[in-house]
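Students often ask what a holo structure prediction actually looks like on paper. The answer is less mysterious than it sounds. You provide the chain, you provide the ligand, and the output is a string of discrete structure tokens encoding the 3D arrangement of the protein together with zinc ion.
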Amino acid sequence: MKRMVLGLLAIQLAACSDPVPESAIDEHIAEPANEPVEARLPIVRPATPEADLLRVEWMRIEHAGWETLAQQVEQPLQSVPVAGRERPGEMPALGIIIDDLGHNYSRGRRVIDLPAPVTLAILPHTAIAARLAKEASAAGRTVILHLPMQNGANLSPGPGALFADMNRETFTATLQGNLDDFGPLSGVNNHMGSLLTTLRPQMDWLMDELRERDLFFVDSRTSAQTQAAFAAQEHGVPHLPRDVFLDNELTPGALQNAFDRALAEARKNGVAVLIGHPHEQTLAFLEQVLPGLEQREGVRVVAMEELVGRNRR
Ligand SMILES: [Zn+2]
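The corresponding structure tokens follow.
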């Protein structure tokens, strides 16, 4: 029963999108019949406050371990290799990523238009992925693949997902299909993945491919047991972990608190990574807080590839 409810939640969320012109819907919509059902749902739906709340609930289930994890993130694990920290003399730098893009054009466009180099994390095989990536790139914004991975809550991660029971051949073919779906790409972060990121062999397969393609990795850290940083380090893939989730709660006070925590992390460590989602409240908050941030707070928002010490390909 729980699984059914979760499935319905995922299906409703996958269908949450505001109207887009027919021309914006590319061939990715024509999914084969054996794709998960949510991949074949109509994407033309109004964006509503209910949809935003539903997404928050979905995230809460997927990230059931967040509270414990948040405490650990306050004091990053000594054993996890972290690149790009500690740049004495430089203004503290904050990287901001908006996840789960690709279903909804107008919200994606608002991310591109934010008055700071915010990174777009776009889901593969979604209606607006190619168009958003192209427009973001033209505007000088960083685009990364938001790579769907198996989670521990049996939620469907959506089209292109990587699962623990895939053999290496299927795993790599699925990964390559995602990486080739749209571009240009500078890096990858994980969508869900509270199960898959804990599996070292699969993280090794992933990092092998990213090294090959000269892409960086941002670990969204949906599990405290994530192996991604260890695998990235071993394969020479530039990487950073997520420090703070911006919008676990959508009230103005909670958004401000999370943002302030990210600023504090940046001041403490030199850099910090903040991840949010395309909720109306999140976008409105960023539109309001980003102008003049550098002068006001002494923290600069920088593109993710700059944060991981790399240039766009
Ligand atoms: Zn996601």
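The radius of gyration is 18 Å.
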